[in-house]
């Protein structure tokens, strides 16, 4: 299976501290890949390097075979890599469905002319956005709250809404930053189902996660970090039995 | 709180009421003419200016204390071209828009990278520099003396000379502007503005080029400010630097906050109310700016969403 | 007088005006460090310093020194009013920053207009502090008021430094600026410190206005240009550094003096504003780096 994302010898230093140390792995274009590790293992730094918040000190990020190491988040999004945030970043004043409609930005065209004149193609595109947004809200189970402002939704729904919004950009690879953080068991289960559904629909998913149960339930491949280094990689079952991983989590 | 199931259609009751109120005020001025028509005409010009400010501040959540600069460019371009060079008003206004957009483009690139009080101070400085230039560049602007004898608005043989003609022309322009803002708000462009306003980081993650949309929003605001400046000089027939001073900025902010930031009707009703209120207290002519300043502070503290904001939350409650 | 002397004389007057800009800039820093707020009404305090002194002398026949002290007290009170009536209510509602900026700008207009109504719109000036002829230094005439300004400003900066370093109140204010929560835990009344910062900043502004007015004039609408100059001083010095702001003020005064020499007095403000934009665009953290 060909790789959608390739992390090659990524290193990131902050002053004297090496937060990510020579990490390499690939993410296949199908399925769910998870990066796990104890607190302070460098997961968030790695995530930010991949998403383009800041570049690595050394190493490269390849997306669909092309070097995207130095690209900004919006440029990476345009090439099919879309992220969510650990602390959900919704457009608080907009309704749920409006949030998702914003997500269609990359998949639609039109500026001032389309807004003012509203030619037939723009009206059709708008209709498609409307339908697409409704379908995505349905996918994550938020149809009932479509017209509520994002700010009033409970936290679990806000997370699902953020994922729906990211999906609107039709990413080739969806990056989820600790999606289960702050969710209760029921919400977590709902999230796991949604992620499996997304992967089954053909979108590669890379998630950084603290919650082992979620990872073991849904991941096809697991990368384990400790002190900034990759210490193991493999299927959830293989990783679970890996002595280095056990040592890292218990030690 | 907003109800969970209210469909978007059922919400516009009180907001429509605001438009009716605005129409009644303009209608009254049209019927009775005279002094009130003059006041309402100025209010409508401000309505155009504030609608632009509202695109930049309300829709895109940026801040500019220097929009008066673009009004000055539009106003002076119209004034100079229609007097010294005897152009017709419409081409003069278009030239003003072009100059204002060019200036906004040049100044926008470095300015819009700034955030917070740096952005505020930089835009304030741009407004003040423009004012100083209007004062000092006497060969073109005639300094404090100003330029007089500017012809009235008109296209071809038609000229808006009487109060009612002016008012009717301005009303049409305001309706067009409001219609345009409504369409922008509901479009892909408007959603990108809203995304920048909501979270620049999240907008970037969805592939929205934040810098570009900030600039677009800034250009739209500058264009409308320029139109307002041109309209002003044609309606008054005279222009001087004082027109585009700090007074204009504070007045515009009072209007946009009274009306309601981010709404379409807000700038229009805000401009009408703020223009008409001092007329109710004739004795206060001297202390208008004082009243505006105090009103603005009180609104910022006690009703930061303004009239249209109140109407919206009323509609939302009713929709439950 | 030859060119060299003219230049030197301009430079000296530039430095003395720069000292005043520096004081205004420090006023910005005091409030910014205490609260993170940039007080756009700062210029009103400068205007009030000169204006109130003038009114106390002309209408109430007070001696110069008493009038100046009175002006400082009155302006300090106005500073407290701005904090209590405008800033605090917004602060308590955690208003967004630009609402705060807009509100202080509106406060500036209110103070300006009240002055216009209570006094009038005519430019006012004050007599020089001492009725002495200019000092001649190798052919360069130094206006005596310039010496007052320079000496006075340095004295104020030193006194302010001592206040922050040695007094209980000064130390408490510094603690709040470093970490408000920790300061609150130590029993420092944080909200009182914010009021104090406004009072102190207003009094500094008033002092700047009193020093400056004899060399030029003040009028109800002079506040915004003063504020801009002080803001530029603060930016050049790296926002939040009082000493940096003072040096930044002197730099601005010098550059302005050169601009007047080269381009004429009309471009004084344009030069200052362009310098502001240049700094914001190229190096917003100032020459010394910002504190936040």
TrEMBL record, chain A:
Residue stretches making up the ABC transporter domain: 5-250
Keyword list, A-Z: ATP-binding, Nucleotide-binding, Transport
GO CC entries: plasma membrane
Domain of life: Bacteria
Gene3D superfamilies for the chain: P-loop containing nucleotide triphosphate hydrolases
GO biological process terms, semicolon-separated: D-alanine transmembrane transport; L-alanine transport; L-isoleucine import across plasma membrane; L-valine import across plasma membrane
Entry protein name: High-affinity branched-chain amino acid ABC transporter ATP-binding protein LivG
Phylogenetic placement of the source organism: Bacteria, Pseudomonadati, Pseudomonadota, Alphaproteobacteria, Hyphomicrobiales
Gene of this entry: livG
From TrEMBL, chain C:
GO biological process, one term: amino acid transport
Cell location: Cell membrane
Bilayer-crossing regions: 6-30, 37-57, 63-86, 98-119, 139-164, 185-211, 217-236, 243-264, 270-289
Alphabetically ordered keywords of this record: Amino-acid transport, Cell membrane, Membrane, Transmembrane, Transmembrane helix, Transport
GO molecular function annotations of the record: transmembrane transporter activity
GO (cellular component) term, any one: plasma membrane
Entry membrane topology: Multi-pass membrane protein
Coiled-coil regions, chain positions: none
InterPro entries the record matches: ABC_transp_permease, BCAA_transport_permease
Annotated family: Belongs to the binding-protein-dependent transport system permease family. LivHM subfamily.
Protein name, UniProt field: Branched-chain amino acid ABC transporter permease
